[in-house]
Amino acid sequence: MPPHALYYSDRFVLSQDRFDTTRKAAWMAEALARKPIPGVRLLSPPSATWQDARRVHSETYLQTLKTGQPASAAQASRIAWDPGVLPMALSACGGMIAAGKAARKDGVAGCLASGFHHAKRDQGDGFCTLNGLAIAAHALAEGHREHILILDLDAHCGGGTHTLIEDHPRIWQIDVSVAPYDDYWPGKRAIKEIVTHAQNYMKELWHCLREAENEWPPFALCLYNAGMDIHQDCKIGGLAGMDDFLILLREEMVFQWCRARGIPIAYTLAGGYTGGKMTRKRLMDLHRLTVSCAGAMARAPLSASQ
Description:
This protein has helices at residues 20-34, 50-54, 59-67, 71-74, 85-106, 132-141, 159-165, 201-215, 244-260, 280-299; strands at 4-7, 40-43, 108-111, 147-152, 171-177, 190-194, 219-225, 265-268. By secondary structure, it is α/β, with parallel strands linked by helices. The chain has a single domain (4-299), classed as Histone deacetylase domain (Arginase, Chain A, 3-Layer(aba) Sandwich), CATH 3.40.800.20. It has an eight-stranded parallel β-sheet with strand order 2-1-3-8-7-4-5-6, sandwiched between helices. Helix 9 links the parallel strand 7 (219-225) and strand 8. It is globular.
């Protein structure tokens, strides 16, 4: 198979805020340029449109991000507002939509963005400005009858995503986290687990995947939020005992589960933050695990089910 598409644009880092969420995409693009991963090609995506964003976010909120007023609402995500914030967010969402379309065609694709799953209809939250998971899911569901799964394995709950997809009959959510931030009560199209012991993480994740497989309709696409903030050395969300090896096992499980069932998968970076023992290089090495597993899936033979 040809290399899979991994979407990145300099617009992903337009914000002047220096927090990791607004810088990490460029770090990863630089890391991949220095040390390429087989089975990957970087492409620049179109930005999401205003109409794409309006499928899940209010006109008032989008205008707030455009103008910066009122300031409290424009900076509710905890990312300082400047004129680059909205174009940055729309570009990142466009990357996720493009990854979903490419995955449908090629089986796997990715987006080097992060900062999606806490954003809600009328406000940002938790370093998330626009909810690219929900925006992409709604855009990709338009005109299709197939079901889409959002698999969220960030350290924190994806409550923002849940509020934006819970009424859509063809969008489903599995949310396995290790911290209760942005917690919510799951409806009939969501499975949520908060894991508090690293030794239980893989078992709980597998249980959630099997429950969805047994109880829900077949999925035509998986949007995967591949958070690295579950790592024990990550100060924002880390779980004791969750080391590099367990995260590698998680990535292998996710991509193999999708491949074995013929489910195209589009991934994005999600959480993961520098500080303390978590250097930039270590964080990039963790995110490279996702890209490497995706590259291996792209090079592997198609499953018998396909």
